[in-house]
Amino acid sequence: MAATKTLALVLAKQDYRDTSLLVDFYTREHGKVKGIVKGIRDGHQRYGSTLEPFSLNEILFYKRKRGGDLHQVTQVELVDLFPAVREDLERLSYASYFIELIDELTETEEADPEIFELVIALLEFLATGASAKRAARIFEIKFFELLGLMPEIRSCVICRSEFPDPAFFSVRQGGIYCRPCALKAQGAMGRIGDEAAMVASTGVGIPVSRGTINFLEHARRSPVKDLYRVKVAQEVGAELEKVLRRFVDFHLQRKLNSLIFLEKMGFD
Ligand SMILES: [Zn+2]
Question: How many Cα neighbours within 13 Å face the side chain of 131?
Answer without folding.
Answer: 13
